[in-house]
Amino acid sequence: MTPSRRPASSHILDDDARERAMTSTTNTRSRVPHRGATAFWTLGVPAAVVLGTLAWALSVRARLPEPVAVHWGPDGADAAGSFAELVALPLAVVAPPIAIGMWALASFLGQAALTRRIAAATSVWTATFVSGVTLATVAAQLDAPAWSAASDLTTGVVVSLVVATALAALAARLSPGDVPQPTTAPPSADAARLALGDHEHATWVRSTHQAGLGWILGAVALVTLVLGLATRDVLLAAVLAVVLTLPLLAMTAWTVTVDERGLTVASRLGRPRLHVPLSEVESASTRDVRPLGEFGGWGMRTSVVTGATAVVLRAGTAIDVQRTGGRRFVVTVDDAETGAALLNTLAARSR
Q: What proportion of the chain, given as a percentage, has pLDDT over 70?
C-alpha cells in the first residue's frame, strides 16, 4: 500500500533518492540498562525453579525404585537408569547453559527492551519446562514397586508445557521496558526523504508475512498427528497443537505502519507490538537482509553479533532504523524504500 495522505497527492521517490543508501549513524552504544532485572529473570528465577525441583526430588528419593525409569515410550516406561540420569543430568545439562547464554545476551547486547524480554522468556521457559518434566518423571514412579510400573507422563508434560509458556510470557511482560531517549538532531541531509508539503500528512502501511507459512503449519500438523498416534493421547496432541499454532499465527503475519507516531510493527493478533517513536529515530535506510546469517533464523529476533532487534520473515529488502542509544531495529517488508523515506521525512519534520 502506498502512503495515504490528507489532502491526496502523488509523490514518489526519484531514482537518485532510491539509490542513496543511508549509512547508519555511529553512535556509541549506551550502557545496557536494567542489568539487575535481567539477572533476576535470566539467572535468578531459573535457578530457583531448578534448585527447587532438585531439592524436592532429593527429598523423595527414598520412595523411588532402584533403578528408576529414565525413558518413556508409547507403552510407558521402557528404559531404566540411575537417579542422576533421571534428575541431575537434565537439570544440569539443559537449563544452566541456556540461562547463562540468555543472561550474557541481555547483559551485553540488551540496549533494547525486546532483547532483554526475549532472553528472560527463553530462560524462564527452558528452566520451567525441563523442571516440570523432571517433576513429572519423579512423581510418576513414587512408591512404585519397580521402574517398569511407572505411570504415564502425559498430564505432567501437558501441564509443564502450559505453565512454562505462561511463565515465559509473564517474565517478558514484567521485564523493564526502555526509558525514552529522544533526540533533537534531524536525520542526515543525505537520508532519503519523501516530498511532502508543509501541511500534508502521510501514512504508509504494508503487510509482511512469513515465507513458507503453509509448510510450517503443515509440519506442525504432522508433528501433532504423529505424537497423537504414538502416545494414543488426543489431549496431549491437541494441547501441543494449540500451544504451537497460536504463536505461529501471531508471529508469522505483521502490519508495518509509518505515520506521525513513528514506526509501528504489530502482529496479526495485535501483540507483540513493537514501536519506534519519531523522537528516537536518528535515521532510516533500506538494505537486503539474510535472516539465517544475520539473525539466526526468522521471526522476532535479536542479532547475537550486533544486538540489533528485528522482525524478519523473509530474505530481501528491509527498513533499517538507527535509534538513539546505539539501538537498531530492522523489519523486512515490501516497498521498504518508501517507508524509510517517509520515516526520515516525518522525523525531520517533528524536530
A: 87
